[in-house]
């Protein structure tokens, strides 16, 4: 799913299927830019019980349900 330009709220609505009036709570968050650890955990209540998802902020500003990839060392050849 393309998430470019979508707010966190739109992503939560899409993945959790929330409707107007549904309560969604942020149960955990981290915003450490120095280590690229930016995420929130949101939770809503369903008939079967609580449902929670983590949303990760990527370097390009998008929110996704998967964490950003790590930067790995590279070797470049200049010639």
Q: Helix count?
A: 1
The chain-level structural class is mainly beta
The main pleated sheet reads as: 4 strands, antiparallel
Series of H and E elements: HEEEE
- Strand proportion, as a percent range, falls in 35-45%
Q: What percent of residues adopt helix (DSSP H or I)?
A: 10-25%
**Widest sheet, order of strands:** 1-2-3-4
User: Tell me, what's the shape?
Assistant: elongated
Cα distance, first to last residue? 40 Å
Low-confidence stretches: none
Count of discrete domains: 1
Mean pLDDT: 82
Could you tell me the number of beta strands?
4
Rg, Cα atoms, Å: 16 Å
Please describe what this structure looks like:
It is a single chain. The protein has 79 residues and is mainly β. The chain contains one helix and four strands. The protein has one domain (8-64). The chain has one helix at residues 8-16, and strands spanning 24-32, 37-46, 49-57, 63-64. It has a four-stranded antiparallel sheet with strand order 1-2-3-4, with helices on one face. Strand 3 (49-57) and strand 4 (63-64) form a beta hairpin. It starts with 7 loop residues before the first helix and ends in a 15-residue tail after the last strand.
